Structures are given as C-alpha cells and as structure tokens.
Amino acid sequence: MFSLADHLLHLEGEALPRDVSASAARALLADGARCRAPISGAVYGTLLNDRAALEALGDAVNAAPYKAPPRAPVLYLKPRNTLAGHGVRVGVPGVQGVQVGASLGIVIGRTAARVAPGEAFDYIAGYALVADLSVPHESVYRPSVRFRARDGFCVIGPTVQARRHVADPDRLAIHVDIDGEPRFSANTSTCVRGVAQLLADVTDFMTLSAGDVLTLGVPHGVPVVHSGAHATISISDWPALAIEFVVPTVAQGAAA
Predict the structure, then answer these.
(1) Domain boundaries in the chain?
(2) Is residue 134 classed as helix, strand or coil in its secondary structure?
(3) 3-state SS class at 47
(4) What is the pTM for the complete model shown?
(5) What gap in Å lies between CA 66 and CA 44, rounded to an integer?
(6) CA-CA distance, 251 to 249, in Å (whole number)?
C-alpha cells in the first residue's frame, strides 16, 4: 500500500519523504529546498495518448512499421537511473537538445490488475508532475532507450498531491516556461484515454504495484532546450518543478 495524507515532499539529504500540508510544502520550496524524486517505484510513460500527437502521424500510422493505429496503450519504461527531483541538473547529450515533455503522473496506491474504469480512482494514491525528457526523434515505434532513458530524464515532483486534492485530473492545465518565458501550454482534456480509462486499459495486460507511476502522456509540440536553459514546469496551481540543463561534463543528478 502506498498512501499519503496531503503532499509528499522528499528533501535532498533526508532519508525519507515528508507528508506535509500545501502551505508547508510551499514554504520549504520558497526557502530554496532541494528535492529528490518523491517516489521510487517503476515509472511507465505513455505514447500517443494525446490526440494531436496521434493526428500528427497522419497516414504514416497505417504504413510500416506501425501498420495501424494503436489499439492498446503504447508504454515505455523510465528506469531508475532517470529518476530525479526538483532543481536537478540534467546533461544535454548533443546538438539536438532535449525535448521537455510535461505530463501528469498517476501514482498507484495499491496493486492494480484488471481494474474497471469505474473503480480506477480507488487504486490511485495521488498525482505528480513528471518532466518526461527525451532526445528529439520522430519515430515512436519501439521507443528508444538511448533517447528516453538517459540519466536524469524523468524529473518528478516537487510533490505528490493526495488524490483528494485533485477534483478532475482530466481537466488540468499544463505549462512549460523556458528561462522565465512561457513556451508551451496544454490540457489533460486532450488525451485519447483519460486517467480512469488509461489505468483500466493498462492493467488489462499488466499489473501495477503500489508506488508505481503511470504518466498520462506528453502532449504534442513540447519545446526543445539546450545547455544553459532553465525550465519550469507546472500543472494548475501546483508547486512548479524546476530543471537546469547543462553540458554533460557537469555532475549529473545534483540539485541546482
């Protein structure tokens, strides 16, 4: 069982996360608190769950290697080395830069297998901001580990919000600011599968465990950044998630 009463925040240097009020979380962050990822379970990303992303494939979705639109969720794993927290420095591996994907993370509260859509929310402990980073690439067929699983490429936090604080996860505004300037906006309402349906469809073929995270998917058209950039990612009025992008020679995984 993974449960929380309020807002889960894992401060850098502390062994365990804190379960604190919204005001306490904001006060700690305002004082420059550095954070680790507040969860440690498996993180699964979802592809083509944004209507615009699916439409962008156009006729190619019916050609090789795809051959047809996806009939089930298309997932990929963000392994343990990718996990990072608020204030992390992330190395930019080349001239292509890094795609700053912003997504809603669904944090599983108890073992979920063959969950019915009408019961899905009973299996959710809370929600988190997920910066699902990737080296830019066009193909979504057999998602590449080389592009999506680099160190620090899954930044989560600053907090996990208890489920009770999120009235409608299928209508949340998402924003990405780069160097203090608005660069991207989206809404979870554009998803092909909403939170309950996605959880039902995924658990139809695999079991999710308490503490795992399933992302709702990255919206189409997110920005690309290069070393020296600072990104701030936010959902609704939640505490924002900050990332600094650096040249790869700077130590990875350390808070900025």
Answers:
(1) 7-246
(2) strand
(3) strand
(4) 0.93
(5) 21
(6) 6
The correct CATH number of 7-246 out of 1.10.10.10, 3.40.50.300, 3.90.850.10, 3.40.50.1000 is: 3.90.850.10
- Of the candidates 141, 13, 44, 156, the residue with the CA atom closest to the CA atom of residue 90: 156
Helix (H) or strand (E) holding 119: none
**What are the tens digits of pLDDT across the range 212-256?**
999 999 999 999 999 999 999 999 999 999 999 999 864 454 444
CA angle 81/226/232 to nearest 5° reads 75
Q: Which helix (H) or strand (E) is 99 found in, with range?
A: strand 98-108
Q: What digits encode the pLDDT tens for the residues 32-76? A: 888 999 999 999 999 989 988 778 777 767 767 667 777 889 899
Q: Is the dihedral of CA 134, 129, 84, 145 positive or negative?
A: negative
| Distances 189 to 209, 219, 238 between C-alpha atoms, Å | 26, 10, 17
Neighbouring residues of 91: CB distance < 8 A, sequence distance ≥ 6? 150, 151, 152, 227, 245, 246, 247, 248, 249, 250, 252
Phi and psi (nearest 5°) for 58? 55, -140
Cα angle vertex 11, ends 28, 112, to 5°?
Answer: 115
